[in-house]
Amino acid sequence: MNRRKGIFLVITGAVFWGIGGTVAKKLFQQYQVDVDWLVTIRLLLAGFLLLTVQFFGKDRSQVFAVWKTRRIAIQLIIFGVLGMLAVQYTYMASIKHGNAAVATLLQYLAPVMIIVYLIFRKQTVLTRRDLLTVSLALVGCYFLLTNGSISQLSVPTLAIVWGVLSGIALAFYTLYAVPLLKEYDSLVIVGWAMIIGGFALSFIHPPWQMDFTVLTLQAYLYLGFVIIFGTMIAFWFYIESLQSLQPKESSLLGSIEPLAAVLTTVFWLKEPFGFFQWVGTACIIGMIFLLALTKKSSSSTNQPSKNEKPLRVD
Fold it and tell me: What is the pLDDT of residues 150-199, one digit of tens each?
C-alpha cells in the first residue's frame, strides 16, 4: 500500500508540474500577465506554503535554524538568487516566448550539462552511456527546434535562448544544492530559496504592482493552480513519495512531467507540433529515462548522500 501511495504521489506531482507550465502559458497568452509578477508571486507564496508544511508537519526547528550559521545563510542566499530565481525566471520566460512543452524539454537538458561540466572538471570520465545521453539530447533538440528543417526554427529564438539558460541554471541549482541538503531538509532549503528569490525579484516588480482588473475568476483559478498545484503540492508530493520509493524510481516516474507538458500544450492550447518535433520529444524523454534507469545509487560529486532528497523546481 505504501508503495502504491508513493507511485501515486510522484506521478501526480509530475503531472501537476507539467500542466502548471501550460497553465502559466495560458495566463501569459490570454490575460497578458507579466512574467516578472508571476514569478515573484509564485515564489513568495509557494515558499511560504512549503515552510508552513515543514513547521507543522516535520522538524519545525529547522525552519529558523538554517539562519544561525553564517556560512549556510550566505550559501542559501546565493542559492535562492542564482539558483531558484534563475531557474524559475528563465523557465517562465521560455514559456512566454514559446510554449511549455519546448521550455520543459530544454530545461531537461540540465543533466547533460552537468555531465559535460564534471568531465571538463575531471571529476568523472566519459562513458558510453554519457555519449548516448549527449547524442539523444543533441538529436532531440535538433528535431524539437527545427522540426527537421535546418533553414527554419519551429519556435522563436527567444524561447530557445531562455530555455537553454533554464537548463544551465538548473544544472547550477542541482550542483550547488548538494552541501545544503546534507545539513537541512529539502522543504526548508527550497522553501527559503523560493522566498529569497521572490523577495529579490520584488525589487524589480513588486507583487502589488499589477492591474488586477484584467484578471477574471478563471484567471485567478489558473493562478491558484500554478502556485498551489503546479508548485507547492507538486514538490510536496514528490518529496513524500520518497518515503516509500527509491530516489531512482521517483526520478524515473517524474519523467512524466515533460510528457504532460507536451500533451497539454498540443491538445489544450492547440499549439502546432510537427512530426519531427514528436521525434525530438521522444529522444529527450528517452534520454531522461536512460539517466533515471542507469543512475547509480551512490557515486561521486554530483550525487546526494543517503539522507538527501532530490530537488525539484518547476
Answer: 666 688 899 999 999 999 998 898 888 888 888 898 899 999 999 999 99
* Least confident among 29-33, 72-76, 125-129: 125-129
Q: How many domains does the chain have?
A: 1
* Greater pLDDT, 309 or 267: 267
What is the distance between the alpha carbons of residues 303 and 288, in angstroms, rounded to a whole number? 16
CA distance 186 to 310: 8
What type of residue is 68? K
Task: Print the SS3 string covering 278-298.
Answer: HHHHHHHHHHHHHHHHHCCCC
Q: Is the pLDDT of residue 210 over 50?
A: yes
Domain membership of residue 313 (yes or no) is: no
Q: At what angle do helices 2-31 and 86-97 cross, to 10 degrees?
A: 60
Residue 198 within any structural domain of the chain: yes
304 within domain boundaries: no
Closest residue by Cα to residue 226 from 10, 60, 28, 9: 28
> Which of 281, 240, 241, 243 lies closest to 261, judged by CA?
281
- CA–CA separation, 89 vs 101, rounded Å? 16
**Average pLDDT score over residue span 36-45:** 95
Residue span of the structural domain in which 63 resides = 2-294
Q: Which three cell numbers stand for residue 200?
A: 529579490
Within 13 Å and on the Cβ side, how many CA atoms surround 77? 7
**Burial readout 263-277 (b: 16 or more C-beta within 10 A, e: otherwise):** bbbbeebebebeebb
CB 166 within 8 A of CB 313: no
Mean pLDDT, residues 221-236: 92
Q: Which helix (H) or strand (E) holds 152?
A: none
**Residue 172, domain member (yes or no):** yes
Please tell me the distance from the alpha carbon of residue 64 to that of residue 287, in angstroms, as a whole number. Answer: 39
